[in-house]
Specification:
Blueprint (H helix, E strand, L loop, with lengths): L7 H23 L13 H28 L2 H33 L7 H22 L4 H25 L15 H47 L3
Helix pairs in contact: 1-6, 2-3, 2-5, 2-6, 3-4, 3-6, 4-5
Length: about 230
């Protein structure tokens, strides 16, 4: 079995993440409070970056799935599986933090708003991707790969839904209209969440590679056991 040590990229990303969690929350607390919602608006600095990571995870999953579908790339499939799990993780964060914010902004936990509904459907598609892989039988990985492509196609629809239909959700232009101190805290939060995503992705991909190596070793042992002595 091939052994792989912890790489410099992982250590660097982990160090940046630790430093980010030490300093960026202070930036968020010191950023001006939104006049209407007050401190509850600061969920924005977590909610939106998590949504970006949901989109990123979906695209990476689709990219790995394309490599698997058209080139039979096992490495691509491992990338897709790792990113697919992160899509569900960050999707759950989005769908948890959003209602917390919406309860204060709209007075209800959930509205079947265009952005909320399309985000929920994207999350369900990524859950379906994982379920297809696990329970879809011999064709499960290919079925999951096809689902991930549909999910990736839906990402631009989710993002632009607030501009294409009537909605109570903030528009995509909200970031450009932020106070400069709020904007600095927001983009710092996006950077931090991206680094966290990279750390989790590298760990998950390393686990997937280890599983593949164990499977290869098990097959080698079984083949050796079948050789007549």
């Amino acid at each position: 079995m091939r052994s792989r040590g912890i790489g410099f990229g992982f250590i660097a990303a982990l160090a940046v993440a630790v430093l980010g969690f030490a300093f960026i929350p202070r930036m968020i607390l010191s950023a001006p409070a939104e006049p209407t919602m007050g401190i509850v608006q600061k969920i924005f600095y977590f909610h939106v970056p998590c949504a970006f990571m949901l989109f990123l995870s979906t695209f990476v999953c689709a990219g790995g799935s394309i490599a698997y579908l058209f080139k039979s790339s096992e490495a691509g499939d491992r990338v897709a599986a790792s990113a697919g799990e992160l899509a569900v993780l960050f999707g759950a964060c989005v769908l948890t933090s959003g209602p917390l914010w919406g309860r204060k902004a709209w007075g209800v936990w959930w509205q079947w708003d265009t952005r909320l509904t399309t985000s929920f459907l994207l999350f369900l598609m990524m859950v379906a991707y994982l379920l297809a892989r696990r329970y879809g039988g011999p064709a499960g990985r290919k079925l999951g790969a096809a689902l991930s492509l549909f999910a990736a196609i839906s990402v631009p629809v989710v993002y632009k839904s607030v501009d294409m239909a009537r909605t109570i959700h903030p528009k995509t232009t909200v970031v450009t209209t932020l106070d400069p101190r709020m904007r600095a805290a927001f983009w710092s939060s996006v950077l931090l969440m991206t680094v966290v995503w990279a750390v989790l992705f590298m760990l998950r991909l390393r686990l997937e590679r280890a599983r593949a190596e164990v499977a290869e070793l098990r097959l080698a042992v079984e083949d050796a056991a079948e050789v007549p002595r």
